[in-house]
Design goal:
The structure holds 2 protein chains of 2 kinds. By secondary structure, chain A is α+β, with helices and mostly antiparallel strands. In chain A, a hairpin with a 1-residue loop joins strand 2 and strand 3. Helices cover about 40% and strands about 35% of the residues of chain A. Chain B has 5 helices and 5 strands. The mean pLDDT of chain B is about 90.
């Protein structure tokens, strides 16, 4: 299995597990895509968490304000009529749990990785860019008529990371870096 | 006898969830104190009676492993059980927490039953 397939599988399983365990809902995975080039303008809630180690990058969760409120209401079992500090904190923690779980999965292939503290952005017509990264693996989920995008970009920091991935993978590797 | 618990996590959402889960366990819990990082937790420990600490690892200012080390190095607090609740599922972090004296380890995402099961032998 190549690295992108491992990432897609991990993003999907981790997101489904977090929603099932913490929100008590089943979330369905939809299309998988690879995003390249200049990022499009965002609107809504976007959270980021840095991944560091011999491979480095960023994990991200993006959703509409309505979806963010629904997630908060389900996770905290409370009313969440508008995006506020509690809603943003909940999306940040959701990101932390999803990408934290992905990190644990990827450590089997890439060696030890670290996570940063999450950052959340809420607004309209803004663009985001992770310096030095051009390609994101994106899995789209749907719950209650709303979409949730879970993304990860990851690149080797040094040649040693490539060797580590190839030598630690249990199956043949099609990764080319 | 009722216990006093300290929940340490930089996420207010997780602190709120743990408050609810701890109340749902049916365990004899009197007070649930909260702290947003290790430094705040040490301040609470200095001011309140605490019988159990539930702590995240990945936090700003002072992380959970530093907090655990500080508690275990204190003659006053070293017998307080500390359970780590974190997304850090790697064997290295688990081993480090156990080496520092953690009484248990729960991975996020968690269920109420997992928390209850972990605390059953401690409280």
């Amino acid at each position: 299995m190549d690295l992108n397939s491992i990432i897609v599988k991990s993003l999907t399983q981790s997101t489904e597990q977090v929603f099932s365990t913490m929100l008590g809902v089943e979330i369905g995975a939809g299309e998988v895509a690879v995003e390249n080039g200049v990022p499009e303008a965002n609107e809504g809630v976007v959270s980021f968490i840095g991944v560091a180690g011999s491979w480095a990058g960023t994990g991200s969760v993006c959703c509409s304000p309505l979806m963010a409120c629904k997630i908060c209401a389900a996770m905290l079992m409370c009313e969440a009529p508008a995006v506020n500090e509690e809603v943003l904190d909940t999306v940040a923690e959701l990101t932390n749990m999803i990408i934290g779980s992905v990190k644990t999965d990827l450590e089997q292939h890439l060696g030890p990785l670290g996570l940063s503290i999450p950052t959340v952005v809420y607004g309209r017509n803004f663009k985001t860019k992770s310096a030095g990264t051009t390609e994101w693996t994106v899995v789209r989920f749907f719950w209650d008529g709303e979409a949730l995008l879970v993304k990860l970009c990851l690149e080797p920091k040094e040649q040693a990371a490539h060797v580590l991935f190839h030598t630690s993978a249990t199956q043949s590797c099609a990764l080319d870096v | 006898m009722e216990s006093d618990v300290l929940v340490v996590d930089d996420s207010a959402a997780i602190r709120k969830i743990l408050q609810r889960v701890l109340r749902q366990t049916g365990m004899a819990i009197r007070t649930i104190h909260e702290a947003g990082d290790g430094q705040e937790a040490l301040a609470v420990l200095g001011a309140q009676k605490v019988d159990l600490v539930l702590s995240d690892i990945n936090m700003p200012k002072m992380d959970g492993l530093q907090l655990l080390a500080s508690i275990k190095a204190s003659p006053e607090w070293r017998l307080i059980p500390v359970v780590m609740i974190t997304t850090e599922g790697g064997e290295t972090k688990v081993a480090e927490a156990v080496k520092l004296g953690a009484a248990g380890y729960v991975r996020k995402p968690f269920t109420a039953d997992q928390i209850k099961e972990k605390l059953a032998g401690i409280l």
